């Protein structure tokens, strides 16, 4: 049996607007095992971004239990959430979020700088990770010298360089053309085949179909869960 690394039980998220309560997530239950490739699929306003923020320890639920790598994280303060976030989750964003004045290898180094890794070690690890994503000839290029697909590869390398438990990708092909998006999904396939756990947020069924599990979310409810064949 594979190790369970994420478990959400009866997760609820509400906001108060005056006297009214807005329910964004309604009693969410989801389990993710090590090595899963899960797509959370839903339209705009479905609650998937809120769910992603809770998974990534960027936000806390109003109620319910959330365990990540056997740690109960739903009651932690911001400092403890940040520590778990930095250790357990690698983020890939739709708009890449690269620093324009830094080279590719310097962008990938950043999480290791914050983790206190020595300069020699972090430069080597960052370079190795860029080679892994097919950018061995672009180590010293700045983002404006890279295509959109290359920038997303840098972002994926940055997310993976700390060896996180989960790779959390938010609409990772949303800023790319169809061909480049397909190439990025092929890279995610390769990473998944190497054993990495991936959770991907998307509104696009074609992108979701690249995952091995798809969870549908609508109006804050998980409507359906099925394995992609």
Automatic annotation (TrEMBL):
One matching Pfam family is ABC_tran
Keyword Ligase listed? The answer is no
Taxonomic classification:
Bacteria, Bacillati, Bacillota, Bacilli, Bacillales
In its UniProt record, a GO molecular function of this protein is:
ATP binding
Query: From what superkingdom does this record's organism come?
Result: Bacteria
Read off the Gene3D superfamilies from this record. P-loop containing nucleotide triphosphate hydrolases (3.40.50.300)
Do the record's keywords include Transport?
Answer: yes
Q: Name one GO cellular component term.
A: membrane protein complex
Q: Where is the ABC transporter domain?
A: 6-229
Matches recorded under PANTHER family: CELL DIVISION ATP-BINDING PROTEIN FTSE, LIPOPROTEIN-RELEASING SYSTEM ATP-BINDING PROTEIN LOLD
Q: Which SUPFAM superfamilies match?
A: P-loop containing nucleoside triphosphate hydrolases (SSF52540)
Please provide the record's keywords in A-Z order: ATP-binding, Nucleotide-binding, Transport
- What name has this protein been given in UniProt? Macrolide ABC transporter ATP-binding protein
CDD domains named among the record's database cross-references = ABC_MJ0796_LolCDE_FtsE
Q: Which family does it belong to?
A: Belongs to the ABC transporter superfamily.
